[in-house]
Amino acid sequence: MKVYGSLLLQAGNAHARAGNAVAAKHFLGEARQIAAKVPDGQCYHSSIFGPSSIAMQHTDIAINLGEFGDALAASKTMPGGGSALHLLGKCRHDTDRALVHLKTGDTDKAVALLSSTASAAPFWFQNQRLSKSIVKDLLHTPASKSPQLRGLATKLGVC
Predict the structure, then answer these.
(1) Concatenated DSSP letters for 81-132?
(2) Which of 24, 108, 126, 143 could covalently link to 16 via disulfide, CB atoms 3.0 to 4.6 Å apart?
(3) Residues 49-86 pLDDT 10s
(4) DSSP conformational letter for 141
(5) In Å, what is the CA distance from 144 to each residue of 41, 111, 149, 151?
(6) Which pTM was predicted?
(7) 43 phi and psi, to 5 degrees?
């Protein structure tokens, strides 16, 4: 069931990236039904699937559809603060959350999430295009005066 649920999420993400909201939400809904029946955070066949995966991928799907209000709501449904996710999964989700907070106007929260992610996985963070893009965009907001953001910009070479 977990592998099937993971495949449904991949299909949902593919449709979201193609701009097909109806299909993306259909596959997300199907995956959500399966996730309700399985324990969170267990890995089968190199696939982690469960309620945490649903929260993470729902956020990503909403971002890809440009539905930032929905993405913000989805990000808040993460069970246990993401404790069932592996480190890089949590970092990816927190980077998505930073983007959502940037897009919804909470730039201080975006900076805090990026800073936390940079501390948790510095090499990963420095090699992500999304991290660089968010930091560049934050430099054009009132958060640009933040020493924390300036440090991230320097670290990423985007100042």
Answers:
(1) GGTTS-HHHHHHHHHHHHHHHHHTT-HHHHHHHHHHHHHH-HHHHHT-HHHH
(2) 24
(3) 899 999 999 999 999 999 999 999 999 999 998 888 89
(4) S
(5) 37, 10, 7, 11
(6) 0.92
(7) -110, 125
